Amino acid sequence: MKKRHTFVCWNCEETYTLMREFIAGQVLNVACPFCGEEGIVDLAPYSQATEIIYRQTAAQESSVPGVELPDILSTQPKGR
Ligand SMILES: [Zn+2]
Domain-by-domain residue ranges, the chain? Predict the structure, then answer.
């Protein structure tokens, strides 16, 4: 499921939004539209939270609101 996420550039610190599909534990590749620098967003820290959310919601309703990510995801320089 693609969703609009907000990112903050590691280089110029501008925030921008991109439609991205969230896959738990994956690393997203992003490119800043302001300065053009590429960056990565490590989603591994959120994969555990995802499982907890799914378990909680499974007992309640079938409409899972997706992954609970921070409002603004911070990016990191590539290759570190
Ligand atoms: Zn930038």
Answer: 3-77
Q: Is 56 helix (H, G, I), strand (E, B) or coil?
A: helix
What pLDDT shows up at residue 46? 72
Residue 5 CB neighbour total at 10 angstroms: 21
pTM value?
Answer: 0.70
Residue 2, C-beta contacts closer than 8 angstroms, at least 6 positions apart = 19, 20, 21
User: Cα(35) to centroid of ligand 1, in Å?
Assistant: 4
**Distance from residue 9's CA to the centre of ligand 1 (Å):** 5
Measure 58 CA to ligand 1 centroid, in angstroms.
Answer: 39
pLDDT-flagged residues of the chain (< 70) = 47-68, 80
Ligand 1 centroid vs 79 CA: distance in angstroms? 16
CA of 53 to the centre of ligand 1 (A): 32
